[in-house]
Specification:
about 160 residues, two-stranded parallel sheet, mainly alpha, Peroxisomal Thiolase, Chain A, domain 1
Length: about 160
């Protein structure tokens, strides 16, 4: 880690697992599945769709063979917006959290380092990989009052999920 005043850089090298194992590479994490979608029609260009996000999450985790009960935490996009965060949290809750016996911890690296615009997804990937590698999830910072529009307790699925 960088000391005060120093700069740090991280690199992600994606390789087939068999090749990395054969070459003796240090493996920090394994990506089991990915997916992309369009949120479809919403009332605003930047407003996500809970139904589309929940559907994508169910699909990715099912194809990867990862059960919601197997998750340690969920790294959200978490922009800090009053509308987007509750929609994203509801999608995660309905698609993954409701299937668990224990609560699913959620967080976003943006509370630790800010929103890096196009690099924010890479920052979230690095946080998740390092958390898995080191066995600890960095705390959420600067959250005195959680968004009151996020149902952190067990909730019933909405009509569109």
């Amino acid at each position: 880690m960088a000391m005060s005043g120093e700069r740090a850089a991280r690199v992600v090298i994606l390789r087939p697992l068999d090749d990395a194992l054969a070459d003796g590479d240090a493996i920090r994490a394994v990506i089991l599945g990915t997916g992309v979608n369009s949120d479809g029609r919403t009332i605003g260009l930047s407003l996500p769709s809970e139904a589309a996000q929940a559907s994508l999450l169910r699909s990715i985790y099912s194809r990867a063979g990862v059960a919601p009960e197997d998750l340690t935490f969920f790294e959200m996009h978490g922009t800090g917006t009053p509308a987007g965060d509750p929609i994203e949290a509801a999608a995660v809750g309905h698609s993954l959290g409701q299937s668990r016996s224990d609560p699913l911890p959620i967080g976003s690296v943006k509370t630790n380092i800010g929103h890096l615009e196009p690099a924010s997804g890479m920052a979230g990937l690095l946080k998740a990989a390092l958390a898995l590698d080191r066995g600890i999830v960095p705390p959420t910072l600067h959250c005195e009052t959680p968004n009151p529009n996020i149902a952190f307790r067990r909730i019933e699925p909405s009509a569109d999920t």
